[in-house]
Amino acid sequence: MQKASVNNPWSWIPSLYFGQAIPYVVVMALSVIIYKDFGVSNDDIAFYTSWLYLPWVIKPLWSPFVDMFRTKRWWTVSMQFIIGAALASVALTTPLPGFFQISLAILWLMAFSSATHDIAADGFYMLALPQDQQASFVGVRSTFYRLANIAGQGGLVYLAGKITERTGDKAFAWTISLSILALIFLSLWVYHSFILPRPESDRKVIQGDHYIKEYFATFGAFFARKDILLVLGFILTFRLGESQLIKMVVPFLRDPLAKGGLGLSTAQVGLVYGTVGVLFLTLGGLLGGYFISRVGLKRALWPMVFAVHVPDLMFVALSAYMPQDIVVISAGIALEQFGYGFGFAALLLYMIMVADGVHKTAHYAICTGLMAMGMMIPGMYSGRVQEYLGYHQFFIYICAMTLPAFLMAALVKIDPEFGKKAPASSA
């Protein structure tokens, strides 16, 4: 079994990134839907769920320790067990009077475990695969990451909506749905305990006891880059518009027409946004990874930047015309999500390029921490901005927030050959 897993990345990459997505989906997406179901205001939803990004923002602070102690495989499997237990705990909080406060505390702790898991899993991915396969499998990992979104935002949200319709008990509906998710994740933990390979390169970065020196040297090596300002600017602005949009999509779909929303039910949101939307997001991610592998990241960048941001105009149109036909709504969501999935592959591979080196695990964690900061801070106030502007003006504002990403795309420096796939049949 072990030999097969080394020779065949398909035996572990899909399940690893499916599992990586589950806690993130719960913390960042399901929490918004659940709290909206329980009547929490848009402002509170955006503000408090954006704080849940914090572990991903500050994960670079402890990413060097993942490099310095134990293997990436050990960290990955250990965090999966803790996350599975946390998911089960969240499921038990839904009937409690203080559900909002208690669940936020558990989700915040789970987010720390998930962020640590991301550090280890991404480092493991870079250690277990050669560079040409890393580029080739960007689309694959993105696809299975998105499939977890379908399972979480689509299937389980739809299930929770249907149970609520039958029983009238939202707490019971979400207890069942979250319990299923916990069972799925714990099953993945058992599977990965046996199937993940053990590459020779997966070891501590240092063998001595110079931990403090190594810790600061890791950060020093990253921020000493000559192009560090461009790196920071590109990562922080690439999703500036999306960071605010994503918090208000579900409230927009759920709010009644009188408030400027589209008035969909929970089950319909699970179908339209969590299933159709994520399917097209997944398709876009697959094609994005393939496109980069054929032409390289440099040539792919501009088409992918346009693909991410221009389709945001669909929300301007939806909020202006407020269609009631679910097919029309689904088509608009599908187009926007396809473009985002296609273009996001560029950011993923750019961060892999930036992280290349001895401390690639920690440096990739720094990149993803910066990306999370770019999502967290603007997202915190998106609910307040939306409540002030209304949905239609808010989506116009979102389109304006994409302009810095175009500027940074014009300035950023990329190796013309990076990302091109060598002739192979691995993906």
What CATH architecture would you give? Up-down Bundle
Order of helices and strands: HHHHHHHHHHHHHHHHHHHHH
> Count of DSSP E strands?
0
Q: How many distinct folded domains?
A: 1
* Average pLDDT figure: 85
Measured between the Cα atoms of the first and last residue, the distance is 20 Å
Give the overall shape, derived from the CA principal axes.
globular
Class by SSE composition: mainly alpha
Task: Describe this protein's structure.
With 427 residues, this protein is an all-alpha fold. It has a single domain (2-196, 221-411), classed as Growth Hormone, Chain: A, CATH 1.20.1250.20. Helices cover 78% and strands 0% of the residues. The two termini are 20 Å apart.
Q: How would the blueprint of this fold be written?
A:
Layout: H1 2-7, H2 13-37, H3 42-51, H4 54-58, H5 63-68, H6 72-93, H7 99-128, H8 131-136, H9 138-167, H10 170-195, H11 211-223, H12 228-237, H13 240-254, H14 266-295, H15 297-309, H16 313-321, H17 326-355, H18 360-380, H19 382-389, H20 391-400, H21 403-411
Helix pairs in contact: 2-3, 2-7, 2-9, 2-10, 2-13, 3-18, 3-19, 6-7, 6-10, 7-18, 9-10, 9-14, 12-18, 12-21, 13-18, 13-20, 14-15, 14-17, 15-17, 15-21, 16-17, 16-20, 17-18, 19-20
Question: What labels would you give this structure?
Answer:
single chain; 427 residues; mainly alpha; Growth Hormone, Chain: A; 21 helices; 78% helix
Brief synopsis:
With 427 residues, this protein is an all-alpha fold.
